[in-house]
Amino acid sequence: MSTDLVVIKGGKDGLRVQLDEQAEWPAVLDALRAHLSQGGAFLQGAKLLLDVGLRQVSEQELEDALALMRGHGLRPDSVASLTREGRQAARAAGLNSRALARTNEATAQTAEQAVCMRRTVRSGQIIRHPGDITIIGDVNAGGEIIAGGSVIVWGRVRGVVHAGAMGDSSAVICALELTPTQLRIADRIARSPEGGGQRFPEIAHIVGEHILVEVWHTFRR
Fold first, then answer.
1. Average pLDDT for 65-72
2. Which residues contact 219 (CB under 8 A, 6 or more apart)?
3. How large is the average pLDDT for residues 168-194?
4. Are residues 109 and 11 in contact, defined by beta-carbon separation less than 8 angstroms?
5. Are 218 and 201 in contact (CB under 8 A)?
6. Using H for helix, E for strand and C for coil, what is the string for 60-100?
7. How far apart are CA 26 and CA 64, in angstroms?
8. How confident is the model over 75-128, as pLDDT tens digits?
9. FRET partner for 53 with CA separation of 20 to 30 A, picked from 24, 152, 165, 198?
10. Backbone angles phi, psi at 138, to 5 degrees
11. What is the pLDDT of residue 113?
12. Among 188, 153, 183, which residue's Cα sits nearest to residue 169?
């Protein structure tokens, strides 16, 4: 099964779930189910736009997709469709319908996918964002960051960081001091070694089936 049939991106107004326009519908639903299962707590309560593009989605097909997303805690708000059938199905489901084209969107989406915060993430606080997150400050024990993309911390990490929360195994976690309670990238999990970590910048990324932590300046793509 290929998860490439579904693309989930973040923006200032919530998530955008873009479905493949040509693949068989059961395969698209399977790919959507896989993405949502990987997203976990990151997706809970998120408002989203469902983009079906040129797919002539029926009312039943749309309802199946909406039920799947609601079952994972998402809040579908509107449907973007370039076909009359898609817009009719959206209205039948009680959602707003938008006739949005996909051209010239890449630059705007990239700008919306990253966020930079100057703050300390304290115990009990959770920061969530669909794209990349940069924190200028520390992530204390008991604090948590969940990102759809990569996470860069210009400070100490002693809490929990989950990068690639929607299944992006190419995401990385970087910090000036990486001594976390737990690191997660996509569906891989790692914990800080006994006795604590190093006191210099490091980067965590997936190699094979495991999360590898390297000294920042030795990291190579």
1. 91
2. 203, 205
3. 88
4. yes
5. no
6. HHHHHHHHHHHHCCCEEEEEEECCHHHHHHHHHCCCEEECC
7. 10
8. 898 999 988 888 899 999 999 887 665 544 443 344 446 888 999 999 999 888
9. 165
10. -105, 160
11. 66
12. 188
Both tokens of residue 197? 């970590």
Q: Which amino acid is at 117?
A: M
Integer Cα distance of 133 and 130 in angstroms? 9
Q: What is the pTM of this model?
A: 0.59
Q: What is the pLDDT of residues 13-24, one digit of tens each?
A: 667 888 998 899
CATH class of 113-218: mainly beta
- For tokens 């989950």, name the residue: 162
Q: Would you say the CATH fold of 113-218 matches that of 3-108?
A: no
CATH architecture of 3-108: 2-Layer Sandwich (3.30)
The per-residue pLDDT for 205 is 93
Alpha carbon distance 162, 90 (integer Å): 33
Query: Do residues 142 and 123 touch, judged by C-beta distance below 8 A?
Result: yes
For the stretch 187-204, pLDDT in tens is 899 877 655 556 789 999
d(CA 133, CA 148): 9
For residues 27-50, one letter each, b for 16 or more C-beta atoms within 10 angstroms of the residue's C-beta and e for the rest, the string is: ebbbbbbbbbebbbebbeebebbb
Helix (H, G, I), strand (E, B) or coil at 57: coil
Domain definitions of the chain by residue range? 3-108, 113-218
At which residue do the structure tokens 């097909």 appear?
Answer: 61
